[in-house]
Specification:
single chain, alpha/beta, Rossmann fold, 5 helices, 21% strand
């Protein structure tokens, strides 16, 4: 396995989904800290308040369809945050959406590193991690 994440943030309005995702992450020993947000606005506030600290997640797992602020709206607001250099979280979208337009839309959003279909799994997380570390090695 590659280097562990320090912090993974889950943004999904479904409590059971967050619970299962946390179990997968913890049981797979993928990170030291996992935090779930049922509301995208709360997650956005946390990111804005910590944008220049070392308290940011390494990885954000984002749902699309949520009440209030959905995943697309979250991404628009996220793009406005000024993060300190080399401290920008990686975002992967995880969804039940089978709409090909959603995947196409996601592929055009620069801040997104991946688009995955639920159910979330250990294999999916491993794939994300491998992809993220490969991109990091290319940047460095």
């Amino acid at each position: 396995m590659s280097e562990k994440f320090k912090f993974i943030m889950l943004i999904d309005d479904d409590r059971p989904t967050n619970f299962l995702s946390e179990l997968i992450i913890k049981n797979g020993d993928f990170c030291d800290k996992v935090e779930s947000y049922l509301d995208a606005e709360d997650a956005l506030s946390f990111l804005q308040e910590n944008s220049e600290t070392n308290e940011l997640p390494d990885l954000i797992l984002l749902d699309i369809n949520m009440p209030g602020m959905n995943g697309w709206e979250f991404l628009e607001e996220y793009k406005k945050i000024k993060f300190s250099e080399n401290n920008t979280p990686v975002i992967c979208m995880i969804t039940t959406s089978l709409n090909p337009d959603d995947e196409l839309r996601a592929s055009k959003i620069e801040v997104l590193s991946g688009f995955y279909l639920k159910p979330f799994s250990l294999e999916m997380l491993q794939e994300m991690q491998d992809s993220i570390w490969k991109k990091q090695m290319v940047k460095d």
